[in-house]
Structure formats: structure tokens, C-alpha cells
Amino acid sequence: MVTDIKSELRDCVQALEARAVMGMLPDRPRLLALGEPTHAEDTLLDVRNDLFRQLVEEGYRTIAIESDCMMGLVVDDYVTTGEGTLDDVMARGFSHPDIGLGASAANRELVRWMRAYNEGRPAGERLRFAGFDGPLEMAAAASPRGALTALHDYLSTHLGPDLLPRTEQRLDHLLGSDDRWTEPAAMFDPARSIGRSAEARELRLLADDLSALLDSHTPRLIAETSRDGWDRARLYARTATGLLRYHFWMADTSPHRMTWLVSLRDRMMADNLLALAERGPAMVHAHNGHLQRNRSTMWMSGLPVEWWSAGALVSARLGKEYAFLATALGTLRHRGVDAPPPDTVEGLLYALPEQRLLLDAPRLATALGAEPPAPRVSPYYGYASLDPAQLALSDGIVFIKDVPSMAR
Q1: 157 φ, ψ to 5°?
Q2: Contact indicator for 59, 396 with CB cutoff of 8 Å
Q3: Whole-angstrom Cα distance, residue 408 to residue 105?
Q4: Which of 18, 112, 147, 240 is the most exposed place for a label (fewest CB within 10 A)?
Q5: Per the domain annotation, does 205 fall within a domain?
Q6: 225 within some domain
Q7: What's the mean pLDDT in 57-68?
Q8: Percentage of the chain surpassing pLDDT 70?
Q9: Distance CA 137, CA 67 (A)
Q10: Residue 1 pLDDT
């Protein structure tokens, strides 16, 4: 079977460039998502940067990455207006320190290039940066203080404090100490979570009311501030309600607790992506698992967990205006991932001479036939190999033959 498809495989291969991506898709997507199969590899981020620079020439003006949506505002302010310094932005504008987003040389180069590109350009032509993850880390979820107080301040300033259901002082009292919200033990012990306390329940109602107030006064708020200002307030509202919902389910004691938590994280991601899609064409970059169309699965604490990823949720809403390119690797030797077996999809691609490839995923799935190869088994838990049975649900495959170790 492997020998039979080699010629068909060549027909699926194209150069990895934006023009080839656009030509492979039936329509220009509003959201073009590039996945990665592992984190913390600057080679993959360099590929992302190269593709984004080319996509700018195709009319894309925003890049969204798997980082805290609130922290991402710091980066966006820098690339659009020059506010702050590059060092400060890299320190304060990226989340997930466990995978080194702020320390990444490739991320730094992306931010530097975006700022240089925007210099002297009118606002409508500037590139924008966004984080689309919630303020969530592996160890803890953030306090809703930042998002909720920012939303409260925006509405109080532009609608007047008398219209708001709670005062600033009452809001501060309900929020209390941020340490109560970020308690690391709450991730594994529901009893340590504040999410179902009387204060948290009142805050959920308050966040809902403030969100409704924001929506109800949309014409006035856009006219008195700007569309960008209103969009940012909507981000505050989504983040506040999303965090409070997440904390509520952190306090849950049912067997479905983890299913709720992973689902809510991707729901927050999806909501942020849909908001970005309203603004114009955007490139999205995150782990393959957050961008795929098929149902996500994993084992946690000995139990199976299934949920729909952000990509699946967005694809269901946008249809052909969402496109997904999954990235696969040949070797990641510094992580113990050597050359793939020749009878796997990665093995077939590894036999080709090119270092970087773009493939039409549905055509590749057809070439593999009704009985695709077995999945590659990775010795490194941090690398997720392709699922041959799900290839047709991707629009394209980006294949990187060898990923070298890169010191940060």
C-alpha cells in the first residue's frame, strides 16, 4: 500500500507558502488556523512567522496565538502604537511561562517585526496582535478582578455610575483577595475553590448584568468611544463571565468536573476567535488539539475526557470561513523522537526530500485509501502525532522534516 501511493503522495505536495495555501482552499477563510503538535519549539514558531508575513500580503491583518487574551492587549498596544518597550512587552504580554512564550526568540521577532511594519502606517492598515486563550494556567485560573473591574470602569465612565447594578466598592468587596481565586490546590481539590461561594455567585450575576448593559448600549458606546474601545470592553465581558463560570466548575465534585473545565477553556478560546473574525481576516496559531475539527479526547486521573475544541466550535459557526492546517514533524531528536516508521503517515512524508511541505489533507486521505496507516506512537508525551483516520477533517498538513534543538 505504501509503494502504491508514493506517486499520488507527490501530487498532494506543494511548497509551504501563503499563495499555495490560498490556492488550495476553495475560499479565502476569515480565520486561517495553523496548529502545532508540540509546544516550546522555536522552529515551529519561525514557520508561523514566515507564513504570517506572507499572509499579510494576502490581506490578513491579525495574528492570534494561544496566550492569555488579557495579557495580549499589552502586545497589541505596543505593535499598534509603540506603547512600552519590547523587553517589557515580552515580560508582561505573554502567558504560559511553562512553555516559555515570553522568552521565545521567535515570539520576540514576531512582535519586533509587527511594530516595525506598523510604524508610520494609518490605523486601518496596521497589524494587530491577540491572545485568544483565557487567563488560565495549568496550576490555577486567574482572578476575575482584572476583566471585571475594567468592564465596570468602562461602563461607569461612559454610561454613568448610577446605571450600574453595583458600586466599585461593592465589586472590590466581593472580589476580595486575589489569592483566594488563584489557590493552586483548587485545581485538584474542589473544596479549595472559591467558585461556589456566595460572593462568587453574586459576581456571576453582576458580570452577566454588566455584559447585558454593554450590549444594550452598543450604539452609544461605539459612538462615544470607538469600535476598538467597545470591542475591548466585550473582551472584558467575555473574560469575566468565562472566568467566573470556570471557577464555578472548579468547585464541582461530580465525575464530570474535568470535562467541564477543558470544555470551558476551549469555549473561551472559540468566543475570542469569533470576535476576532468579526474584525477581519486573521491567522490563528495554537496546538493542533485546540484547532482540530474532530472531537478531542484525553485521559485525566484515570478517566476518559471528551470535548469539542475551539476549532470545532468555530468551524461549526463559520463553515468554509474557517480553515485548519495541522502541523506534523519528522524528528524531534532532543525530545527522543527519532525518524518515524516508514509505514506511518509521518514516515511517508519523511521519505520526501523537502524539509518543509504543504499537503492537501483531503487528497492525502483519499490517497491513503479506506485503510490508512496506523498512527505513529510518540515516545515523548509532549508530541501529538497525526491521527490518519482524521486527516480529511483538516484542510492541509504542514510537515517539518527535522526540528533541531534551539537554546533559548
Answers
A1: -65, -40
A2: no
A3: 7
A4: 112
A5: yes
A6: yes
A7: 98
A8: 98
A9: 10
A10: 46
Calpha distance 96→66 (Å, rounded): 9
Residue 100 region by backbone torsions, left for phi larger than 0, else alpha for psi between -120 and 50, else beta: left
Q: Nearest 5 degrees, angle CA 18-CA 23-CA 27?
A: 105
Q: How many domains does the chain have?
A: 1
Here the cell at position 267 is 469555549
CA distance 204 to 309: 24
Query: Would you say residue 81 has pLDDT above 70?
Result: yes
End-to-end CA distance of the chain: 42
**Quick count: other Cβ atoms within 10 Å of Cβ 227?**
12
pTM: 0.96
Give the pLDDT band of residue 256 (cuts 50, 70, 90).
Answer: very high
Pairing label, strands 31-36, 322-331: parallel
Model pLDDT for residues 83-134, shown as the tens digit of each residue: 999 999 999 999 999 999 999 999 999 999 999 999 999 999 999 999 999 9
In a domain, 108, yes or no: no
Q: Is residue 371 part of a domain?
A: no
SS3 state of residue 166 = coil
Answer yes or no: are the C-beta atoms of 24 and 396 closer than 8 Å: yes
- Strand 396-402 and strand 356-360: pairing? antiparallel
Pairing of strands 128-133, 62-68: parallel
Q: Report how far residue 254's alpha carbon sits from residue 142's, in angstroms, rounded to the nearest whole number.
A: 22
Q: How far apart are CA 132 and CA 66, in angstroms?
A: 6
Query: Looking at the DSSP assignment, which residues form a beta bridge with residue 327?
Result: 398
> What domain range includes position 246?
139-265
User: Quick one: cell of 158?
Assistant: 461612559
On whether the CB atoms of residues 121 and 224 are closer than 8 A, the answer is: no
CB contact at 8 A, 342 and 330: no
Three cell numbers written together for 137: 494556567
